[in-house]
Write a structure and sequence with these properties.
Ald_DH/histidinol_DH, Aldehyde Dehydrogenase, Chain A, domain 1, Aldehyde Dehydrogenase, Chain A, domain 2, alpha/beta, Succinate-semialdehyde dehydrogenase, mitochondrial, 506 residues, 22 strands, Aldehyde_DH_Superfamily
């Protein structure tokens, strides 16, 4: 087995050259190293949200197909084709995968833009960002350390080691179709787990492209499996109830995360959940307003506001309120909106009709409650059915949907406040606590507020906070566990204690 893995590493150069001449767009799913159709023969179309044109079609798999993927991952795990490799060998294969993703950045970005509507420059940025997790975990593979603990008894030694969970099910969202896979799969594979990936129905093509590169990297059959489906619930239920799945990682809505959490309880599975946010964005009187506006634009409008860490509720202190609103309005109205394949596009379409209706419904609800629409607040039908104008809403009523719920769209809601205590109180009222942002030049205030914000991640004078080196995750109803950083490995390992007794030292 080990010889096969080493030969795969050595063969990577000719495989890279071969891939450069072929397409990464796949029309089948990957199970046990084979590209397969659904057992029912059914497929579903993947459409570009910018123009509703069909990009491709993929298998509409069911629980029976997913079971085959679980069986393949189980076989690969227990045959030691992956966990049995040395950490150095797994590290090298993950590095191969990293280099292939890097080499194919342009094609992956084009696939991502075509199926998600994301501007092409953002797609390229996501490939680089997502691939940073593959690089990080390729290196972290060799640093999954154990411990030797001083024993309280003279003739014993206490050894602690970390071992892989087994088969991990990874359920990933549409808004970051590459990064959410690499952030999970990189950690799982580094630890020695094998995986079954269920990508979002809106963006399966990116997942399949990345899986194809995993094959080319020499990763053994059955270690990485991808199941595509338009009917996620039965497969999610199978993942939660199957005794052969030892860990589940899910990124998505809080509502779905709670369902998966409940369904996993009977099996006492290890569950990692990265769920919805309702991020506060606070601008204090002491803030540098230019930096604050820059941070607001970066946090709010990346991927058309469709990110879990996107700033959702803006709280601006009364002393700088008018200047901040004016500065932000100017920047929002200068955004270039259009189809993602244009190099100068900054804002693309919303992902689907459901998301479009949600966003437009929030704005209409705000109008009905006499909130002020400073700019935007309307569909852009000339561009396409799913385009919505970047919008600023002020004088927001606390019972408005746009204030209470996560928007997940290009809508800024701004509330004026007087004191730091008031800002913290309203910021912490939410039952969610993924990310939070604030801008201040007062060092004492920075430490006070950073400690008191009830979120898992805080951006201070910064609107973009994600990095492979940093732990990503939330508190309250925004999730369990952490992804990225060395903490990300912990979601896929078990700690084993070994007691060596009756030793003779003298």
């Amino acid at each position: 087995m080990l010889r096969l893995a080493v030969s795969s590493v050595l063969m990577i150069k000719p495989q890279i050259q071969q891939r450069a001449m072929s397409s990464l767009v796949c029309s089948k799913a990957l199970i046990d190293g084979k590209w397969v159709s659904a057992s029912s023969g059914e497929t579903f179309e993947v459409k570009n949200p910018a123009n509703n044109k069909v990009v491709g079609s993929v298998p509409n798999m069911n629980a029976k197909d997913a079971q085959l993927a679980i069986d393949a991952a189980k076989k690969a795990f227990y045959s030691n084709e992956w966990a049995g490799l040395t950490a150095k060998q797994r590290s090298q294969l993950l590095k191969n995968w990293y280099h292939l993703i890097e080499k194919n950045t342009q094609e992956i970005a084009e696939i991502m833009t075509a199926e998600s509507g994301k501007p092409i420059n953002e797609s390229k940025g996501e490939v680089a960002y997502g691939n940073s997790f593959m690089e990080w975990f390729a290196e972290e593979t060799r640093r999954i350390y154990g411990e030797i603990v001083p024993s309280p008894i003279q003739n014993r030694e206490i050894i602690v080691m970390k071992q892989p969970l087994g088969v991990a099910a990874l359920i990933t969202p549409w808004n970051f179709p590459l990064a959410m896979i690499t952030r999970k799969a990189g950690a799982a594979l580094a630890s020695g787990c094998t995986v079954v990936i269920k990508p979002a129905e809106d963006t399966p093509l990116t997942a399949l492209a990345v899986a194809k590169l995993a094959q080319d990297a020499g990763i053994p059959d059955g270690v990485v499996n991808v199941v595509t489906t338009k009917e996620a619930a039965p497969i999610g239920d199978l993942f939660c109830k199957s005794p052969d799945i030892h860990g589940i990682s899910f990124t998505g809505s809080t509502e779905v995360g709670k369902i998966l959490f409940r369904q996993s309880a009977d099996g006492v599975k290890k569950v990692s959940l990265e769920l919805g946010g309702n991020a506060p964005f606070i601008v204090f009187d002491s803030a540098n307003l230019e930096k604050a506006v820059d941070g607001a634009m970066a946090s709010k409008f990346r991927n058309c506001g469709q990110t879990c860490v996107s700033a959702n509720r803006f709280f601006v202190q009364e002393g700088v309120y008018d200047k901040f609103v004016a500065g932000l309005k100017q920047r929002v109205e200068s955004l270039k909106i259009g189809h993602g394949d244009c190099a100068d596009t900054q804002i693309g379409p919303l992902i689907n009709t459901m998301q479009f209706n949600k966003v437009s419904g929030f704005v209409e609800d705000a109008r009905s409650r006499n909130c002020k629409i400073v700019t935007g607040g309307k569909p852009l039908k000339d561009l396409g059915d799913l385009f919505y104008a970047p919008t600023i809403v002020t004088d927001v009523a606390k019972d408005a949907k746009i204030y209470i719920e996560e928007v997940f769209g290009p809508i800024v809601t701004i509330i004026k406040f007087k004191t730091e205590e008031e800002a913290l109180k309203i910021a912490n009222e939410s039952r969610r606590g993924l990310a939070g942002y604030f801008f201040s030049e007062d060092v004492q205030q920075i430490f006070r507020v950073a400690k008191r914000l009830e979120v898992g991640m805080v951006g201070v004078n910064e609107g973009i906070i994600s990095a492979a080196e940093a732990p990503f995750g939330g508190v309250k109803e925004s999730g369990i566990g952490r992804e990225g950083s060395h903490h990300g490995i912990d979601e896929y390992t078990e700690v084993k204690y070994i007691c060596l007794g009756n030793l003779k030292y003298y």
